[in-house]
Each structure stands twice: as C-alpha cells, then as structure tokens.
Amino acid sequence: MNHIILVNIMSEKSIDLLNAKGPIITAVKSSKRYIITFEASGFTQEVTADILLRYYHGTTQIVLPNESFSDLNIYPAAMKPTLKELELFMKDERIKEVVYLASPYTDPDPKVVERRFREVSKVSAEMTAEGFITLSPITYGHTLLQFKDMPGDWEFWTSFCLSILDKCDKIAVVKMEGWDKSGGIAGELQYAKEHGIPVSYVEPEQYLER
Questions:
Q1: pTM for this structure?
Q2: The domain 98-208: what is its CATH number?
Q3: C-alpha to C-alpha distance for 105 and 113, rounded to whole angstroms
C-alpha cells in the first residue's frame, strides 16, 4: 500500500468541497516520504509522518483548494480512512526508496556500448540482491533496442530518462570508465540539482568483481 485517500466525498449528501465527488485529499508514500495531494488543484506538499498524523487528527490546519483554512476533523468519519488503515499505510516496509543508476552508454565502438550495458546491469543486479530498489535506464533501454530499431543517443532518450529520474528518490552515479565525460550523466545530474534529488556515487568494482 503506497497510496491512501485521506478525505473522500462518499455521496452527493456529503459535505461539498468545490462541488467535488471522489478523492479530495490523497497521500502517497515514497520510501520514508509522504506526499499529500489536493486533488482539485493538483497542489502537492511533502510532509513527515508526524505531520501526516496531525493532519489526520485535525490538529494541523490545511489550505483547501479554494484557499480557505480547515482541518480534517470537520469531516464525517465515513469520509476518512480508519486509524488502522492509516497506520498500515505508514508502516508498509515494502515501499523503499528507488535509486536511479546513472552510467555512461554511447560510444563509437559497439563493443564499448555492450560492455557498459553489461557492467551497469551487473551492478544493478548485485545491488538489487542486497535489497536496494535500483532502476537502470541503460539496462532497460539497451534491452528495448534489441527489439526495435531506434537511436541509442542521449538526445533521443532524454525525455525517457528524465521522466524516470523524476519518479526516483535519489540518483547514484556508477563511476564506470567514461562517466565523467558522459553528456547523459551531466544532463541527469543537472536535472537532479534543479529538482533537489540527492546524488551519490558508486564504485563499480565492488560489484563487478563478485
């Protein structure tokens, strides 16, 4: 469970918030982060577990989509999850942080391209075996190229990679040969910097030598 409806309009007889029907306020869990979304406006807010509980019990004011202030205890009980449901949502340890593996790929020599694919895939496999949730766009993209004739350069895959990175909790740069000269990695790091995504670095030898 990584998604829960905090406030929901159950029927036409329920309190009308901007004439809405269905979910009003929802929360998504990503690793240890909680993201609250006000559905009518699309406004999102990252909160801690303590703040999420205060929202639930109505001890913290919230700003509704119409910019008025309110709290959750004004709503009928049927419009809120039970406390047990909320605790289950918060304690679900299956939801871990997702690590985006950035690595070099393109090269004039097809053998270098293939080696880079195999090396980052090995790193991803070893990290996954250790319990990390890793996502390597090179592993996925290189596999797709076996089934469809498409460009393999950063220009073609920019939107694909950054869309995935945007959904991840952190980016880990695999310091394979050529990583510091990679235009793709430079673009990914720039995006991470602009959007506050934490950056770390991985020495590949610790995984490749296994």
A1: 0.66
A2: 3.40.50.10400
A3: 6
